[in-house]
Amino acid sequence: MMLSVLLQLSQTGYFMLLAGLFFFPLLVALVTAKDIFFNENLSANLKLVWLLIVILIPLLGAIIYFFWAKPVAARKKF
Predict the structure, then answer these.
(1) Staple 62 to which of 12, 21, 32, 49, CB 3.0 to 4.6 Å?
(2) pTM here?
(3) InterPro entries in the record, alphabetically (predicted)?
(4) Among candidate residues 24, 41, 33, the one with its CA nearest the CA of residue 62
(5) Residue 65: how many CB atoms within 10 A of its CB?
(6) CA-CA distance, 19 to 60, in Å (whole number)?
(7) Is 17 a domain residue?
(8) For 50-72, what is each residue's pLDDT tens digit?
(9) What is the CA radius of gyration of the chain?
(10) Which domain holds residue 29?
(11) Model confidence over 36-48: pLDDT tens digits?
């Protein structure tokens, strides 16, 4: 099924598919990196570690950061 759909794509369709597969993780990584950079509750070392994680595994790193590190940093604030 999936193969037949891919075979029917035009050159523009392939470009859009590849652009989406490339730019979506890039956008998620950039938004996460901005959040890490401006997070005042993280030390410089932790920021560096989280940035490396997000750069190496963008989607999974962003999910882990927002569900694990972000709530921990918010709890430290109060």
Answers:
(1) 32
(2) 0.70
(3) CLS_N (IPR027379)
(4) 33
(5) 20
(6) 19
(7) no
(8) 999 999 998 999 999 988 887 66
(9) 17
(10) 23-77
(11) 999 888 899 999 9
